[in-house]
Amino acid sequence: MKGKRGAREVALQALYAWQLSGGDPLEEARANEHYEKSRFLEELVGGVRQRAGELESLIAPHLDREFAKLSPVERAILYIGAYELAHHPQTPFKVVLNEAVELGKSFGASEGYRFVNGVLEKIAQALRPDEVARSRNLA
Fold it and tell me: What does the pLDDT look like over 37-59, one tens digit per residue?
């Protein structure tokens, strides 16, 4: 596992397994062959688990279908992205979106990354309107 990108990949796999099994996602992460102890990974997985309801409430208004009808991979990516947007203001929103797109390309359905990007962009606009506006003015 290399850096935050690797941590996000392990988190995605752990959160995917958690959705299917209902087990402890931190244990899932620690059992992953690519696991390396990381405060970021532990916080990400633990934070998503603890705040899943809050995150679903952030995500659901921006969906074109029910949250439960999303694939477990899409849900996990959206959980991770929404968590970072809400609880890691030091990570630029464009980095959060880019990392989510990369996870979607690597693990999701062929065009799922576009859907994830669109949803997270709307969440970023809602949670970080000034940062989003600044980035658009620079473009």
Answer: 999 999 999 999 999 999 999 99
